[in-house]
Design brief:
heterodimer, A: alpha/beta, 2-enoyl-CoA Hydratase, Chain A, domain 1, 11 helices, B: 2-enoyl-CoA Hydratase, Chain A, domain 1, 2 domains, 7 strands, 14% strand
Chain lengths: 325, 316
């Protein structure tokens, strides 16, 4: 081996090592860092997560899933999920570029969720509440039969237990793949809110990024108190639809929580950090909860009747559809 | 009468019959037999054509510019109608119309979306697309009806709630949501009729009723087929496909328990015979009114709650 060979060999080794190192760094960068959509800052993911998924530099609120929301909003370990046996089906045999059945399957695989909402009982600073938390990651948080049913059941549970109802929304609107059946969920959830109103039960909604369409036009905006999270986009019609209709571009803050505040549509604009304390304070301010027994009884009768008939109906409908096919 | 695209073969056939009649008049030759033959063929063809309409053909009928609108129907089914205006908060949204009237002597409140017939008319009524103020006006009329114990009839024909800047600023979503919840609470009977287009929350905002009826060729959907196609297929031109998939016809919706009954239309659609259309409508309204008016306020509210509580299909 000449001295020249030895240098060459050393150089090759160094290059190989560097390449390996670079590859490793690249990989870990992808996992460790994220870029803020708003201020473009490179942020350590851990810093962001420790800050409730809010950009430490510009206070931009990242979209979060239901699991994180539950962690942040309720007392540790207090959330007990309910109605997990309510599962989606494909009543219309719907197919666009993909069948609805496949879409349901891949949504479940992607998110490890059964549907676009988690409902259950939880505690906020020790105060019991019935909660519904939507998840945008599951088919855009769209409301189909299951979402409507679970939210309605959560409201009925609130009535039965005489505890306040809290709904955290994140949804693109109604689920097209269930057509008119999903439209009916708007009516169903709103009818349930009507019962909460009659009984005098406190109902708080928290509108988060994004809340649109059929969800905005039903239970989301029916809260006794409406809280919107900072920066969330909230509206009825989508931005693109409006632009196409009126043929002009829209202001950049159009349909943000701040915009809604300006136009008197929400009670409270809250940062994610203050959200729990805000709700906790509101719960205390509305105590004691006085609920009309009569309404509770009426709702109980209907919901008992419903559970049996809904199942029977599902079966007979399935049969009918099969016969047609 | 504006001819729809799929009706062309029928119109061609009728034109031929007219030609034959002309020829018969001009020459000595007796054409009666030929004319009769063609007339019978046209008749059979029409029967088959209109009995087997596809969803997108029904949409064309539902959107026919001469389809009877709010005024056409109200004039024919009721007496003494007085239109009430405004939301008492600064706006009179003309996409919604309503007021008290009597139907066969029974005092009722009729509220509905209003589509114009001409372009000028349509600009006034915003093509039947209500702003939030329209829904608030409707709610004011519902409350009026409740106070004076009048059953409510809603006539719905809308491409949807208007998507615009002012609509968002004045809370379109909230206006519809409030109507859904307030309709649920009403102590008087509510009958909703989808007479033409029943698009999305814009239609539902008037349709949380004890009975939901639908015209034979009307359609009722969560999103317009064009909107659905542009989102799911990324191509609005595939609206026909979306219309099939969305199951928007009266027959389909009856099967899925979304509506309670179908109102027959004259052959070819309501625009061929306003009087017959109104006669069928009035008959169904009276039948349902009689049934609902015998019920107590509590019964009506509980039934309305139960009706919508059970809507939807979940896995067993």
């Amino acid at each position: 081996m000449t001295i020249k060979d030895w240098f060459n060999k050393r150089k090759e080794l160094q290059i190989a090592h560097r390449e390996l190192e670079e590859a490793q760094i690249d990989d870990s960068i992808g996992k460790l860092w994220i870029k803020c959509y708003n201020c473009n800052a490179q942020l350590l993911k851990k810093d962001v997560e420790d800050n409730l998924d809010v950009c430490p530099q510009c206070n931009y609120h990242f979209r979060i899933n239901s699991e994180k929301r539950i962690q942040q909003l309720f007392d540790e370990g207090s959330f007990k999920e309910m109605f997990t046996d309510v599962l989606p089906t494909d009543p219309l045999n719907f197919e666009d570029t993909e069948t609805y059945k496949n879409r349901l399957k891949s949504a479940k695989e992607k998110t490890n969720l059964n549907e676009a909402v988690k409902c259950g009982e939880a505690k906020i600073d020790g105060e019991r509440v019935s909660a519904a938390v939507m998840d945008f990651e599951y088919m855009g948080g769209s409301m189909g039969s299951v979402v409507g049913e679970k939210i309605t059941r959560a409201m009925e549970y609130a009535l039965q237990e005489k505890i306040p109802m809290i709904a955290v929304t994140a949804s693109g609107g109604a689920r097209m793949q269930e057509s008119a059946l999903s439209l009916m969920q708007m009516a169903k959830t709103s009818c349930a809110v009507a019962r909460l109103n009659e009984a005098g039960l406190l109902y708080i909604t928290v509108l988060t990024e994004p809340t649109f369409g059929g969800v905005t036009a039903s239970f989301a905006t029916l809260g006794d108190i409406i809280i919107a999270e900072q920066g969330a986009r909230i509206g009825f019609a989508g931005r693109r639809v409006i632009e196409q209709t009126i043929k002009q571009s829209l202001p950049s803050d159009f349909q943000t929580a701040e915009y809604l505040m300006k136009y008197g549509q929400i009670d409270i604009l809250s940062t994610r950090k203050d959200l729990k304390a805000t709700i906790s304070n509101l719960l205390k301010l509305h105590k004691p909860y006085v609920v009309k027994e009569e309404t509770v009884k009426k709702v109980k009768e209907v919901s008992e009747k419903k559970t049996t008939t809904a199942k029977k109906k599902t079966v007979s409908k399935k049969k009918k559809v099969k016969v047609e096919a | 009468m504006l001819m729809l695209r799929f009706e062309k073969p029928l119109y061609d056939l009728r034109a031929k019959i007219n030609e034959l009649e002309e020829m018969g008049k001009r020459s000595d030759k007796d054409m009666t037999k030929e004319i009769q033959h063609f007339e019978q063929a046209a008749e059979e063809f029409a029967e088959e054509l209109y009995a087997n309409l596809t969803p997108s053909q029904k949409i064309q009928i539902a959107r026919h510019p001469e389809r009877p609108n709010f005024k056409d129907l109200v004039d024919r089914i009721s007496e003494n109608f007085v239109e009430f205006h405004g939301d008492r908060e600064g706006t009179d949204d003309r996409a919604i119309a309503g007021g008290p009237a009597t139907i066969d002597g029974i005092p009722v409140m009729i509220v509905g979306t209003y589509k114009g017939k001409s372009t000028k008319d349509n600009l006034i009524h915003n093509f039947g697309m209500p702003q939030p103020q329209g829904y608030r006006k409707a709610l004011r009329l519902f409350k009026h009806a409740e106070r004076f114990n009048m059953p409510i009839i809603t006539l719905i024909d809308t491409p949807g709630a208007y998507p615009g800047i002012k609509a968002e600023e004045t809370a379109q979503g909230t206006a519809i949501a409030v109507n859904l919840a307030e309709l649920a609470k009403l102590k008087v009977p509510v009958i909703a009729i989808i007479t033409g287009e029943g698009c999305s929350g814009g239609a539902l905002g008037l349709a949380v009723a004890n009975k939901v009826l639908m015209f034979e060729h009307a359609y009722y959907t969560v999103i317009s087929p064009e909107g659905c196609a542009s989102i799911l297929w990324r191509d609005a031109a595939l609206a026909d496909k979306a219309a099939e998939a969305l199951k928007i016809t009266a027959d389909d919706l009856l099967k899925f328990d979304i509506i309670d009954d179908i109102i027959k239309e004259p052959r070819g659609g309501a625009h061929y015979d306003y009087d017959l259309t109104a006669k069928n409508l009035k008959k169904k309204i009276l039948k349902n009114l009689k049934e609902l008016m015998s019920k107590s306020a509590d019964e009506l509210r509980n039934e309305r709650y139960e009706k919508f509580r059970t809507k939807g299909v979940i896995a067993k």
